[in-house]
Write a structure and sequence with these properties.
The protein is 42% helix and 13% strand. With 392 residues, the protein is of the alpha/beta class. The protein has two domains: 140 residues, Aspartate Aminotransferase, domain 1 (Alpha-Beta Complex), CATH 3.90.1150; 244 residues, Type I PLP-dependent aspartate aminotransferase-like (Major domain) (Aspartate Aminotransferase, domain 2, 3-Layer(aba) Sandwich), CATH 3.40.640. The longest helix has 21 residues. The protein is globular and about 65 Å long. Bound molecules: pyridoxal-5'-phosphate. Pfam families: Aminotran_5. InterPro entries: Aminotrans_V_dom (IPR000192), Cysteine_dSase (IPR016454), PyrdxlP-dep_Trfase (IPR015424), PyrdxlP-dep_Trfase_major (IPR015421), PyrdxlP-dep_Trfase_small (IPR015422). This is Cysteine desulfurase.
């Protein structure tokens, strides 16, 4: 099997699985219980929070465990927006047209609740710039939202510079850092945002666990509670904590950070290896997204004339797993909104592009097999109709 869809999700590392297994089997006490086995679990969670804070260079009190980044994005954006409006600070939010649905669908909801939202489009070079944010900011603007790395095309957004400018304007600033946490060597203590998020299944941890980092920025404007109940997570997100997955997530991040530089260098080499191999075989392609500010581990390529959804099915039959865009649209293969934002005048690109994304286990052999598969498809050697008959 060749798995090249690590931007969608990653395999859980064996060391992480062991941590989760041991915790589930041996430490099943409730962290809120007052007897010893509960206290032991509570202690391990406190340690995990401390370790996560150290890895990200933030304060322990700023860490909230969540069920993933969708929850964290929803919580951070809604809470900060609603609080600002309640305080009479304004109703205008600036974000980009290339955000993940867990951000875009929140801002769309906020629009139905009296908020005004400006969606910044990538410029002709495929960039989202700080100046674009500044230009549309008014005295009604309450907050800015931007992702760190785009999940479909791998563009890097200027979150550090945006943070400086947001801070100067006394705006809250939310960063969806899901595709950066792990591979990117960012010092989050230097990121002047009020909230940022992470999701364990993007860095070889389990699905259904993530975090929100919140730093209060104005005396009156504080993040509100997400869930009311027993008062866990400092009364902000009630519910018995998923300690085995919290421990697994922190272990996954620890392992990822320990190999960060080495892995990033590997991604750069793999990126060039992929492009060189395609060129050598005279396979026509164009890279989608920002050409200058991009990560090497997410490659979105336009194969002119080839319908991506058909290529995906044929590759699937060949045991090669890639994607045509965001996998988070519940298995649907609709045209990519992100590619529409980048290339509004080139509709053929929207449905003829593939995403190839690397993980720590990706090798050159994986890329060789992907290329072989592409070749087989172009030579008509993978027959959809025939295989459908076989499956039936
Ligand atoms: C940029 C980005 N934000 C948010 C999410 C949602 O994360 P989760 O799966 O933890 O809800 C994803 C997942 O694909 C993503 O890529």
């Amino acid at each position: 099997m060749v798995y090249l869809d690590n931007a969608a999700t990653t395999a859980v590392r064996p060391e992480v699985l062991k941590v989760i297994h041991d915790s589930l089997l041996n430490d099943y006490g409730n962290p809120s219980s007052t007897y010893r086995i509960g206290k032991k679990v509570r202690h391990s969670m406190i340690q995990a929070r401390k370790q996560l804070a150290e890895l990200l260079n933030v304060a322990e009190s700023e860490v909230y465990f969540t069920s993933g980044a969708t929850e964290a994005n929803n919580w951070a954006i809604r809470s900060q927006a609603e609080k600002s409006k309640e305080l009479g600070q304004g109703n205008h939010i600036v974000t980009t047209a290339i955000e993940h649905p867990s951000v875009t669908n929140v801002t769309k909801y906020l629009e139905t609740q009296g908020f005004e939202v400006t969606y910044i489009q990538p410029n002709e070079r495929g960039e989202i710039t700080v100046q674009q944010f500044i230009d549309v900011t008014t005295n009604q603007t309450i907050g800015w939202i931007a992702m760190a790395v785009n999940n479909e095309v791998g563009s890097i957004l200027p979150i550090f510079e945006l943070g400086e400018e947001a801070n100067e304007r006394n705006l809250w600033f939310h960063v969806d850092s899901v595709q950066a946490v792990g591979p990117m060597a960012y010092d989050y203590s230097q990121l002047k945002c009020t909230t940022f998020v992470g999701s364990a299944h993007k860095f070889n941890g389990p699905k259904g666990i993530g975090f929100l980092i919140y730093r209060s920025f104005q005396e009156h404007n504080h993040l509100g509670p997400l869930l009311y109940g027993g008062g866990q997570e400092n009364k902000m997100r009630s519910g018995t904590e998923n300690v085995p997955y919290i421990l697994g997530m922190v272990k996954a991040l620890e392992l990822t950070f320990a190999e960060q530089e080495e892995t990033f260098n590997k991604y750069e080499k793999l990126h060039h290896y992929l492009l060189d191999a395609l060129n050598e075989l005279d396979i026509e392609f164009e890279i989608n997204g920002d050409m200058n500010n991009r990560v090497p581990y997410i490659n979105n390529l336009w194969f002119n004339g080839n319908i991506a959804s058909q290529m995906l099915i044929k590759m699937d039959l060949d045991d090669v797993y890639i994607s045509a865009g965001s996998a988070c649209s519940a298995g649907s293969l609709t045209e990519s909104d992100i590619l529409k934002a980048y290339y509004p005048d080139q509709p053929e690109r929207w449905s003829q592009s593939l995403r190839i994304s690397f993980g720590y286990q990706t090798t050159r052999e994986d890329i060789d097999q992907f290329i072989q598969s592409l070749k087989k498809i172009s030579e008509g050697k993978i027959d959809l109709w025939h295989s459908k008959k076989l499956q039936n």
